[in-house]
């Protein structure tokens, strides 16, 4: 009876964790460049004094779905979408280098180039700062940023920086708590000149809202089943106690 209750209890707990993963995916269905997390269930043996006979269920997130999201044309000069595999290098809040597919770029009043999450974009020599004031910004397919200074004629275009693109392989990447990706080794990835971008477009989220909703309904039903199992275990325990008293 104790083992029966243990499995149901752990199943209900891990079901709630899986629901949180799916809910996070659904909440980011409209987040540019977002990659959905995947979940799976497996049995785990409990360790400790008096526990080796117990097995509990565990639902975990084994990885990320790295498939590309839809490319949405915006016509905006500072929007870029990576074609195929690759990542945009950014500077995380702790100063480390991280990677994202969110390509909706802008610059603040100091000229610092940032994305829609206000994360600085990295170049070959660190965060990119544009020379203000400027009238126009262009980003080439290989990430070279060219600007036309304010007041200059139309033919005056100056190259000022190049966005750092990397492509270490998706199997080497993992998502951090801040939502940005990093190499599993913790080291910065080398730049890859083969990564190309499409200007005037952004990559949308790869989340399928219908799929996530169906998965959430299924997990909720599983949770209800685990709770019923716990109630059945309680009723069976009461019945056993009643038989012992009669005896």
TrEMBL record:
<feature type="domain" description="Flagellar hook protein FlgE/F/G-like D1">
    <location>
        <begin position="81"/>
        <end position="147"/>
    </location>
</feature>
<feature type="domain" description="Flagellar basal body rod protein N-terminal">
    <location>
        <begin position="5"/>
        <end position="35"/>
    </location>
</feature>
<protein>
    <recommendedName>
        <fullName>Flagellar basal-body rod protein FlgF</fullName>
    </recommendedName>
</protein>
<dbReference type="InterPro" id="IPR037925">
    <property type="entry name" value="FlgE/F/G-like"/>
</dbReference>
<keyword id="KW-0282">Flagellum</keyword>
<dbReference type="InterPro" id="IPR053967">
    <property type="entry name" value="LlgE_F_G-like_D1"/>
</dbReference>
<dbReference type="Pfam" id="PF06429">
    <property type="entry name" value="Flg_bbr_C"/>
</dbReference>
<feature type="domain" description="Flagellar basal-body/hook protein C-terminal">
    <location>
        <begin position="199"/>
        <end position="243"/>
    </location>
</feature>
<comment type="subunit">
    <text>The basal body constitutes a major portion of the flagellar organelle and consists of five rings (E,L,P,S, and M) mounted on a central rod. The rod consists of about 26 subunits of FlgG in the distal portion, and FlgB, FlgC and FlgF are thought to build up the proximal portion of the rod with about 6 subunits each.</text>
</comment>
<dbReference type="InterPro" id="IPR012836">
    <property type="entry name" value="FlgF"/>
</dbReference>
<keyword id="KW-0975">Bacterial flagellum</keyword>
<dbReference type="InterPro" id="IPR020013">
    <property type="entry name" value="Flagellar_FlgE/F/G"/>
</dbReference>
<dbReference type="InterPro" id="IPR001444">
    <property type="entry name" value="Flag_bb_rod_N"/>
</dbReference>
<dbReference type="InterPro" id="IPR010930">
    <property type="entry name" value="Flg_bb/hook_C_dom"/>
</dbReference>
<keyword id="KW-0966">Cell projection</keyword>
<dbReference type="Pfam" id="PF22692">
    <property type="entry name" value="LlgE_F_G_D1"/>
</dbReference>
<comment type="similarity">
    <text>Belongs to the flagella basal body rod proteins family.</text>
</comment>
<dbReference type="Pfam" id="PF00460">
    <property type="entry name" value="Flg_bb_rod"/>
</dbReference>
<keyword id="KW-0969">Cilium</keyword>
């Amino acid at each position: 009876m104790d083992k029966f209750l243990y499995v149901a209890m752990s199943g209900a707990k891990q079901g709630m964790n899986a629901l949180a993963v799916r809910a996070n995916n659904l909440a980011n269905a409209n987040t540019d460049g977002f990659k959905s997390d995947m979940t799976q269930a497996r049995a785990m043996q409990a360790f400790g004094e008096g526990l080796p006979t117990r097995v509990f269920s565990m639902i975990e997130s084994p990885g990320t779905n790295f498939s590309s999201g839809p490319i949405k044309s915006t016509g905006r000069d500072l929007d870029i979408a990576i074609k195929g595999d690759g990542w945009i290098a950014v500077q995380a809040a702790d100063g480390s280098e991280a990677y994202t597919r969110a390509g909706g770029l802008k610059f603040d009043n100091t000229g610092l180039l940032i994305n829609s999450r206000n994360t600085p974009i990295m170049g070959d020599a660190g965060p990119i700062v544009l020379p203000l004031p400027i009238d126009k910004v262009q980003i080439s397919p290989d990430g070279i940023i060219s600007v036309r200074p304010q007041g200059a004629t139309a033919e005056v275009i100056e190259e000022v920086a190049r966005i750092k693109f990397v492509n270490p392989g998706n199997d080497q990447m993992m998502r951090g708590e801040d939502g940005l990706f990093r190499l599993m080794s913790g080291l910065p990835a080398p730049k890859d000149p083969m990564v190309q971008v499409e200007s005037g477009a952004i990559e949308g989220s790869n989340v399928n809202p219908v799929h996530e909703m169906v998965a959430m309904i299924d997990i909720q039903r599983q949770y209800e089943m685990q709770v019923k199992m716990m109630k059945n275990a309680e009723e069976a325990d009461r019945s056993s106690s009643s038989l012992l008293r009669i005896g």
